[in-house]
Design a protein that fits this description.
mainly alpha; 405 residues; 75% helix
Amino acid sequence: MADQVVGSGEKASRGSAVEVFSAFLKLGLTSFGGPIAHLGYFREELVVRRRWLDDLAYADLVALCQFLPGPTSSQVSFSLGLMRAGWLGAFSAFLAFTLPSALILLVFALTASAIRGSVGSGALHGLKIVAVAIVAQAVWGMARNLCPDRERSAIAVIAVALLAFAPSGAGMLGAIALGAAAGLALGLGETKPSGGHVAVPVSRWLAGGAILVFLSLLVLLPLLAEQGQALAVVDRFYRAGALVFGGGHVVLPLLDAEVVRSGWVTRDAFLAGYGAAQAVPGPLFTFAAYLGAVLGPEPNGITGAGLALMAIFLPGFLVLVGVLPFWDRFRNKSVAQSLMRGANAAVVGILGAALYSPVFTSAIADLRDLALALAGFVALMMWKAPPWLVVALSAVAGAGLKLLG
């Protein structure tokens, strides 16, 4: 018997948590290519094939998650699980979609230090170089989508200039706030007619509680961080997850500010892990599992990976739950759109600054490195090669360059 198709404003047809886990485990093992590609995989599997909901309801849900801070594809998966099988379905979707890449990156973190010799060190250097190509592709794509006019292009440039004088987490937060204020002042939003409604079982009381918890943790965790290293880890990864607007790649400069500049993770290990994260399916936020495992101070290893992973995903899910009951009214206001368009333009500038430092300055040592980075960029942009293949070939090329001296 075919599943009932869920339309805008309708209640989701009910399923089981086991069904949700099975569907998202398949997606977690096969969804390569970043959040935009993930959304395409979700639509094909859950809208077209399984018919859990219709295109209008799915598009409305995607619009919500793209509007909020946090990992878009993970928020969409959480919401779809919630619609299909309640709260157990939501957590089943999250675990199934997240665990495959998190476990792969955890294994890589625990074994990377054992890689020695010319071939191993060259391969790790290749992973650092491919990060240049991947971040450049992300900057190009985001600039085209989020800075399509002179006003938003100017906001992105101003964000880069601000970070030149304040290259820190506070500087990034200031750039986002300045961008949002500029978007509001310039009136970048527009009033749109109401669209469909995504039916998700979240009461306004629960939504208000989620927002309260989100804000309380954002304020209290920095105060509690001095009480122990475990709380300090949660604080830094929570803050990074709370400030990610515009896509998963934006987490790169935020995490660099939190764990590299503090001395917890070396820059070489950071960029090698970021390169490896492009070769695995699932959400880019699972890069946090790698970082938690390679932290210098304890807790690290499996415990550090678990803490970092939980902390970086938590704020995005709290905000999502907090906004769901109010989304229809909020999203159609021009003020809200102006704020977000300005903030997203600033995010492009933040990622552009990160492309130069730390990514380019740490990975490119000579003309051969630059040639390899350019080859990766062309493969991604012009040949539309899958990221995992570009990562693998860059690691091989890096090992070859090392052997050639």
